[in-house]
User: Fold these one by one.
Assistant:
Number 1:
Amino acid sequence: MGRRYTVGRTFVAMLKDRGGNFGMMAALATPLILAAGGVAIDMAGMMTAKNQMQDAADAAALAAASSLVSKDPPTIAKAKEIAAAFLKTQTGGSAVDSPGANDQSGTSSAAKTGLPEASTASQPTIDIIESSNGPTGKAYNVTVLNKQTFQFNALTRLLGKSSIDIETRATAESATESKNALSMYLVLDRSGSMAWKTNTKDTTKTSCPNYTESNWSKYPNLKATSPCYVTKVDALKTAVSDLLKQLKTADPNTLYVRTAAVSYNSAQDTAGNLDWGTAGTSTYVNALVATGGTASGNAFKTAYSRVTATTEDAAHKAKNGQVPTKYIVFMTDGDNNNTSDDTTTLAWCDTARKNNVQVYTVAFMAPDRGKSLLKACATTEANYFQAEEASDLIAAFKAIGEKASAMATRLTK
């Protein structure tokens, strides 16, 4: 009886004794604590791996897209190889080495590739979609899908999962040059004041009759003097030649650009017909001779009517499939002889603006009234140019040419 009492009391005492509970709880919690630490380490590793993978995929996609619009573009199959090789280079080595595997030098392959130790990269997926970009251009969409299996460390595996798949995607777009179809009509002043000299010396001649406003009454019998200065009409020819050269460079096969010109003095001259390329316009402008007064109204009206004719849209549709951008380049060096011509010109400028015709104006050594007319006529303030020297005129026409012949080429990441 006494013995049973002793055993029972001992058992009750053991139940009441809480001294060993901490050890039991610690034993149970330790795996969870270790697993939590492992997860923290692996989370950092996964973020590093994903960032590296994204950078590599971005670079590979852009490399392939760039190659396809280079001077000597590869085939699509070759472009895929370029992307794959670039991806391999970006990761520093083979994309299929097992993590932790060592070569004969004792260095792990993961360390050599730059990937985290606990990762295995798989073969990427590279897709390239080709589409048309205008009548002759091509556009490309390159997608690189980069995959990697991230192996958890031993501590994280205590939670029952050994790995996780990481995936990144990158897209790059590129396109071959696609030129904008355009129709451009030049409205050019060839009045007598265009025979006056500029401040630019003509180094090709030793002397010439240097006409100015003060001696214009002696035309055409003014005595030659030295040095010889470039006339305004010759500066205009140089400026137009530069503009046309830019258009020709942008459209060497005459598939997109149509041009023409009309000159005026006290009346409109015979207008040129819009045609492919720049040759006809160049011939027309180079034949200009400066004489007479100034009346721009009818010439601007003719330019507007020609450039907006339905036949112009039809010509482009048949050859390049585009609706062309319409341009009028209007230049003068003086005032209209009658203010009624200012009114007529401005009315047609407003009509052009309302019908999406881009009007560029150039006031060349012009008086205030001429400048005011051209400022009001320009489609926007940025479309107005004021030239006080021959070099200014050439720069103005060059700027217009650059804007008009701008080619749409895009390469985005």
Number 2:
Amino acid sequence: MSSTHIRLRRGCAVAAAAGLFLTPALAGSAYGSAGIQAQIVLAAPTPPTPPTPPTPPSPDGNAFPELTPAVAAQLDAAVQQVLREARVPGVTVGLWAPGKGSYVRNFGVADKATGAPMRTDFHIRIGSETKTFTVTALLELVDQGKIGLDDTIGTYIAGVPNGDRITLRQLAGMRSGLFNYSEDEGFNKALTTDPKQPFTPQQLLDYSFKHPVQFGPGEKWEYSNTNLILLGLVVEKITGRPLHEVIAQDVLKPAGLRRTLFPTGAEFPAPHAQGYTDESPTGEIVEATDWNPSWAWAAGAMISDLQDLRSWARTLATGTLLTPATQAERLKTTSIGIPGAGYGLGIFNVQGWIGHNGSLPGYETLTVYLPQAQATMVILLNTDVLHEGQEPSTLFGEAVTRIVTPDHVYPGHKPTAPKQG
């Protein structure tokens, strides 16, 4: 199993090397992002197969007119190409750009057994996008003067390797050097043997701490879900409240997110699509809809929907819940080894698109905001099965942005794919 695949069983999907690979057939040229205004490009469309009619989104007082028919037709064709080639059951794509228009479409099926279509009002498991909420809760405590980003984790949590040297900033920025618990073979065996079992944060840390540290604090960037488990525990210790309550009251409520939640078990509000994964003992594709996400906890357990993620994309990128100084610290990125891509504090900037993606068994999401165009893109799909080693959410993001923001193509660069094994 390759350690470069940053997914929730092997490490939540983010803008990390594997999560940003493109299939050769769909790869475009690299594009720069500095100071270039995104644009909608009109071109002769390829006649598409009609997509599933979208379920009207909940009114939010910020409706945009639809994109021109020509651009919409281009997007329909591009999304359907990825759907077919990557064998994705279903996907919902949302794009909103002031002055340009909106595009909200459902493609494919939500349930292979019944053929029920995807809908825009579905809840979805958001995987690593949870990290954006956990780190926001942490940064709110920074703004309140209750903690400091350069405090060491050992100040709050005992027994952490290098705990007297690793800072909260390094944990949030994926530069701690701590082993990623979801890469541990014992953890993988336990999860695939009984994916509905609950895990505690301490169990997850135990899987990590039996491994040596990977490098010294701050020496380099390496994605690790262990970092977020520790930050979740810090939030709980400082507030004296469970993490799910802190996020609900201190993040979701002020952000106005009514259909987003941090589950405490396997609960999954209806309606939702069935999720399909090959993260099974045999590698065959199975349903993962009701698997217990407690093993992901502060790193990836949350649930949301299209409209809430649309709103959250802008809140996260513009920092409306934080002071300007703290948001500025959040947006300072470290290169992840891909041109135009960097990781900040629980957030990435890829070719100017700011946000996060997520992948856990059965589902993938991508929620990003492009400040230069005030554009938002949200992509939701009901599988995490890789296509030729590539994350399908990334393939959809590339297909959409290649058409609508050619100067800011996500992810914009196709590095050499790593060897598997």
Number 3:
Amino acid sequence: MTLVLQKGRLRARQSKTTEDIAKALSLRALAFGCDDRDALDDLCAHILIENEVSGEVLCCFRMLSLQGKEMAKSYSAQFYELSALERFDGPMVELGRFCTHPCHSNDPDVLRLAWGAMTAFVDAHQVELLFGCSSFAGTETASYLDSFAMLKERHLAPKRWLPRVKAPNVFRYAAVLRNRPDMKRAMRAMPPLLRTYLLMGGWVSDHAVVDEKMNTLHVFTGVEISAIPDARKRLLRAVVG
């Protein structure tokens, strides 16, 4: 068990112990409303953000370290055709199952520490690409049309890395949406995790997967570490420091 980061009452730590994974699974079941464990849980590094005094887990996520040729082993590859990224030359990490306790979902200190822990992990492993699935709650698209229009207009993946359609049920928003986004509505409906990805220069797939099991719409999201703006890097590393 390795302590990753500590700020005030909160601490972030990495563990693969059975007890800690059970805590993460418990929070994930509460946040997602289902048992979402899978075989990747045994392969990932699990990060827990917890109250040091009470031991309550407030946020968790998992990190799967990969090389491009191993892209098919990722969780995301179940839903997206990612052969283009097999050519990516450098260490990569898939961020998955990010969730916060419902009572702490709007606590900025929890989210800052979570991103600080991710930054520490990325720096320690010299990661060059951070990726994963960013989820919108529910499977109805109507509430998110401005968000999807904004993603189409500003944040589509470079063609050389663009994920292709693989899942049977998808919303091809980049092909069907013609409206200009209302930016305020777009950002208001944007999931916090995806919003942070975008602030780091992240890019997304041109379609969203309709995931009935998880009751979400999700887009593949990637962040090339070298492309993160310097000011954003300083903010992230200030949490670590």
Number 4:
Amino acid sequence: MKVTDRWYSERLEQPIGLARWGHYGTPVLVFPTAGGDAEEIEHNGVVGACWPLIESGRIKLYSCDSVAGQAMVAKSGSLDHRMWLFNQYHHCVRQEVVPAIRADMGGDETPIVTAGASIGAFNALAVLCRFPDVFRAAVGMSGTYRIQRFLDGAFSQDLFFASPLDFLPGLEGEQLDRLRSRFAIIATGQGAWEDVGASWEAGDVLGRKGVPNRVDVWGAEWPHDWPTWQRMLPQYLDELC
């Protein structure tokens, strides 16, 4: 049931990989954690946790390499390059990954659900806010929504446009109107390494712009780790798909 693809992205100036599990159903694009690749969610049990939804044809699961996150973790290139890469990564998702998903879906243009944990939550929320024309909902799990702290506190125009908590307060017009018809679930545990405040901040920024969202705070037994996300993602996809 798994299919993988890889191509050279002119936008990223490097290759990117895409993996798919399932035959039909609502398309769901899951972003890896910072250093992860397209198959990370399989290796860490998330695909298996979602298997009843995949097998029943309710969802078709996709994931692409965390190109910008990998560069951030490895500290590849200059800080400006790493921030540029986050902006380019989102444009690659919109202009390359989304068309690949639609082609795999046989031309079906059903809006896509995004999801991700940690830095993956940042990317899931970012592409929903940037491109509500093709994404309809986001599931952010244990999210880190301000990534400047992983970039030595640096900031640039590229990072501004990549960061929903920064660009959303000033957003107006058609993009915001469409975004207000979308939905974000912001979920977090209260266990080890979780930052509950980051999720509340994201929900507040969305709410102030009239973007429908829900912040779900799980208990102290749920840490910033794969067992938490194995439990969260199928629950939320069962609700959304």
